[in-house]
Amino acid sequence: MPNKKTTVGAGAGSPTATFFEGATARKPINNWYTRFAKRASGMFKAKNEFTKEEYKIALEFLDWDVQPKDVNAAPMLALVISLLLAIPVLGFLIYMVFITRELSFTWFAYGAMPLLIIPFYMLFYFQTFILKAANSQKIKAITFIPEIVNYMIMSMKLTPNLERAVRFASEHGRGKIAEDLQKAIWSVDIGTYPSIEEALDNLAYTWGKYSEEFKHGLMVIRGSVIEADDAKRAAILDKAMRDILESIRDSMDKYAVQMRQPSIYLYYVGVLLPLMLIIMLPIGSVMAQLPLAQTWVMILLYNILIPLGTILFANTILNKRPPVYIPPKIPDNYPGLPKRGYIKIGNTSIPAIILGLLLGAFVFGLSVIVVEPLVNPLPEEFEEEALAAYFPFWTIAGGVIAFSLVISTYLYGTAYGKRKAQLDLIQMENEFQDSIYILASRLGENRPIEEALTYSADFLSETKIGGLYRKTSENVQTLGMTVDMAFFDPVYGSLKNVPSDLIRGSLQIVVDSIALGVEQGARALLSLSMQLRDSQKIKEKIASLLEEITSMMKSIAFMIAPLVLGITSALQNIVIGALRSVGSATPSGAADSASIPGLGGGASLPFAGLGDTSTLELIPDNLTFLLIIALYVIEVTILLVYFTSKIEEGDNDLAVKMNIATSLPTALILFFGSAWVAKGLTGI
């Protein structure tokens, strides 16, 4: 039998009281880790117990479909796979360095280091995976603690029935805590626990290891049943709610502070350090006679390792961010949206990828046919030296910008309609928080809900939420619907095209509360307003604590990094040319006393081995270097925009797509523009 909805505050003997008729066991969670761990336990024999209690607690908390033996075997398989991949590469290095001697020992030193580190990193990663997953779930769940506790308190204030309060909170709440409340109810239904009180005790102490405030809140709510006086019980419950909100605010502040320092490290290591290395690497490579600035090393470093390390570190930081606000999810069939993957232009829908390819082709053609001949004309045929040195800068730039336009157009086109609808819903949610007081004030005067809705619609006539109230009022008065149907009817309901969990859940609580009287509905609304207001304060607090870092990263992604990298790519010729001139002018026997001419006062700089210019020949040519840096600009822009968007917007993929779509072409235009200006100023 399906679960039936519980009406808030209804007592056991109330005609509106309904309970779960039968129970269905909740299946443990399966994911990629559980499948990997089970396969590992089939290949390796491991103990079916944990040596550390924290692993047992984490696994019980996560409720994943794995046994301790699976968890213990997973790191073994990860280590073996890593070694199987690393050993052939290590063997190849040994062969090339020590047997054929085609590579120097430096290659072995730099190549063997990551090959030895990666397997042990994978071992550590899988050893601590469930601990990190449990901690991530804890952080996410903290967001919903005030909501869950508030639902229980609302129900307890109306009718002091603990089982009813737990059922109500589990049905209206979100997140893992709501799932665990449902599991507690199921445990009581099948007889695992004799009463809901014992099930709550177990739940409180399970969560107490992760959230002391939730444990305390459950204990207070459980104990409030003993208080016979309604006023004293309400005071106890109100104090419990205040304590939880204060504790949650402190926890959020702590998490925000913990995110700040790693964000600074990400800024320095993932952004500033690569910017400095891009010009220092060729110089250091030549001075130390190391092949660190050759093409494949630059590609490996700037286009693979640095971006990969940055995204892994960024995700580690983002996992510590509590989801203070969950934006509305816009379905594909939302009214007014084009078909998925299409862009709506006027009354016509065009495939986003086709439009992107057309724009890219136009920009590339424009750069080749118009910009290149106008700005960077081909030298006359008789100027053989100039012709040999000619570099089709704007053709390359046009190709890269065209590629970015294809990506940006696709992202923008597929996200724009949904993002616009999402922003409208977010505005409606903000208006809803303000409208709660108006509704509550009318209900507090013992006015019928129909009249309260009509008054609110008139008072908020210029707002989107006012239109929703107007539609609801018309459904009641014109179509003769109940308030529940006026809101939630799948055909005519005012919430039919409002996919906002916040608005739908809040109005469902109001409707359930009004079944017990308008005064109870007013109380429910006031409790909701307090909860929503505190959630907004927490969101603003986190944003303010991280604003300095995110704004700095935005400026780096949008302006500073492209400008610096553009100038650097242009100055590479000067640096390499100077090193070549020093190398050619320095006898091989006088390498130790080589000096760079032009330094005032006879100053000299020692360069080891500059008489041998073989290292210089390994450095990428202009075209290759420009493409490597251009690809790095694309990657660093996407990574920084992704990180800052996730910090500011949370798990909002639409905002991430839109921000990347608008930032990427701008960053590349700045990069190539600054490179061209620097090239012109230096005369290269």
Fold and architecture overview:
A hairpin with a 2-residue loop joins β1 (342-345) and β2. Strands 1-2 form a two-stranded antiparallel sheet. It has helices at residues 32-43, 53-62, 68-99, 105-127, 129-142, 145-158, 162-172, 175-189, 196-208, 212-224, 230-288, 295-318, 352-375, 384-389, 393-444, 449-459, 464-479, 483-488, 501-514, 518-585, 614-618, 622-649, 653-682, and strands at residues 342-345, 348-351. 73% of the residues lie in helices and 1% in strands. Among the domains are: 29-127, no CATH class; 139-226, no CATH class; 425-534. The N and C termini lie far apart (79 Å). The model is unreliable at 1-25 and 588-609 (pLDDT under 50). With 684 residues, the protein is an all-alpha fold. The longest helix has 68 residues, at 518-585.
What is the approximate shape? globular
Biggest sheet layout: 2 strands, antiparallel
Share of residues in helices: over 70%
Distance between the termini: 79 Å
The low-pLDDT segments are 1-25, 588-609
Strand content: under 5%
Please tally the helical runs, counting DSSP H or I stretches of 4 or more residues: 23
- Count of β-strands: 2
Rg over CA atoms, rounded to whole Å, is: 32 Å
Q: Look at the helices and sheets and give the structural class.
A: mainly alpha
The average pLDDT value, as a whole number, equals 80
Q: What letter string, H or E per element, gives the SSE order? A: HHHHHHHHHHHHEEHHHHHHHHHHH
What is the topology, as strand order, of the major beta sheet?
1-2
